[in-house]
Write a structure and sequence with these properties.
Distance between the termini: 37 Å
Shape: globular
Structural class: alpha+beta
Number of strands: 25
Length: 628
Amino acid sequence: MAPQITGDDVGIRILCRKLVILKTESGLQWLIGSPFLPSVNVASTVRCIHTLPSDSLSPDVAKESDDIRGLIPRGFEIIGLIVQEKKDRKVEKVAADAVSAVRNLRKTLYGGDSGEQVLIGAVLDWNHENSERDIQFFISKKGNSKSVEQVSHVVYEDQPEKYIWERGCLVRCELSLKLPLYFPVSNPKDVEGAYARATEDVECKLRDPQVTYIIEAGNKTSSGGSEPIVLHGSDLDLPVELPRNAYVIESAEESYTKSLSCKYFLSETKNFTSSSSVEKDADKILVSVMFNRSRSSQKPVAPIAEYYPAAGNAKLLLISHKLEVLFYVPKDLPLADMVLKLTIPGLVDQLHSFKNKILPDLLIQQSLLRPYHFLPSGFLHPVTAIYELSYGEMEMKQVEVRRSLHLRLGLPFDRPLLRIANAINFFSTKDDMKDKSYPKGSSLLKNVHRDIPSSGVSGGIASLIQGSYEYYHYLQDGFDDSIQQSLVEIGDKDPSFIGSQEWIGAIELSFVLDKLLGVSCKVINVRSGAELPEKCRELALHFETQGTPIMIGGGVLAYTLLGVDYDDVSGDCAFLILDPHYTGNDELKKIVNGGWCGWKKAVDGKGKHFFLHDKFYNLLLPLRPNMV
């Protein structure tokens, strides 16, 4: 275990796997941490891509805040800045300027004063390699002082997922809105003011005493017996100091509800391991918002309709939004605080992000914005992107949006990681199942090879699949994996092929991938299983450069190849095989122990050949699209 930071030690705990993003012209990257975790922590980092024209080391706070506002889930926030210094300035001065930049950004993003918040200013010498060990960390002293002090302890956590998700949980809140905008025909620009007023009205409604928040467990691992909890806007008021002799009449139910924390919905038996992740293991909570007008109100309820005379001819523009925010909360946080301090600000942030995207073209086209959540490799928490669905994914406007996100998140530009198909729905609800535009949640096992022992190849170098995958196997949930129609449409098969029980192989699959996904493939043919070990060097190069899974077919049962372990000196090799012929329950231990996913030698210790010498094999190598 990593050493703990205790007592009065000044220290920082690094949770993210990758602290330093590749050098850029600006040389700036924001540090993200959670105020709900012990000590000063860094959970992730994103690149600063907007700087002032006069100084490439000074962030453009206005543009940065617009981009970051809805990207990072509430419960995590900007707490620091790394500067890749190339002007040979005094390190302490650079760190102090970095802290000032962080304060300015936080004021725009979160409001208020960050005087009591410990902030990080870090400096990496531009002339050195991009190694996180070369970074000098400084933290701000309490108050608004511009002075900083160097950190004496930097701890790199070896089980960051476990560290984060055994202390907190993921919350989702969804809200559908319809905003009617009336504007005079003679002055169409007035619609912008109407839209601004409509969004402000929604913000007020979220804090209205009559609004209702329904909170419930969001996944099967949460305590299934917990009943949903209902909170009203009137329950969210901050406590008021009462006179000594005063008393408040409060129902037992209201008193009980106000005393509940997030633990009420969470599992007490969850066993976190080193491979725990938010997608698989984190407890989850759902929050639904209802603008309830049926409760009694102190205000007069009549008239029930109001009349606003128009000075002239007017038009109506109806704007529909579907907000969906994720945020991270500690398990002991009261539910009322969760709603007041995280749910409402998160919804407001996303509403403002929608407004900023829509306003420039409000009268030109009907926008269809939708938030999507992603968990890029190396990130400990999800990120949210807002896409305009009226554009196709291959249109340049949408490509440029993704390219900007890749730049900010430090993702490579030669693979499509933030397409809608890659989005993750951490929760599955009935509404999601009805909505065909939204990616469905999945209960399939993922990355089943992660905890498999080594191959046993002495001196070998393992080359593995890159990214994440789901394990589909036979007889799984009655899933119909027929792809016969595509083969008929491209002329590879006769119409009688549809509905038949004929098998398809690697060649046919290459046609399907090209037609449905635009993915080209390379095919390797071998006349006998005895020739497969000779292809290990070529297969290793594929996994290192393309990183896609390889289908093995031909005159035998089909397999998926996830990697090879190869010693180019001795020629010894092993193949990481995922077998789709498994028909049992989705139990990782059963799959691995049963050999359905594991390293296979061409010839095992008993002299048995895994690849048959009297059969031919076709290997299908999909080529990763070189685009975002």
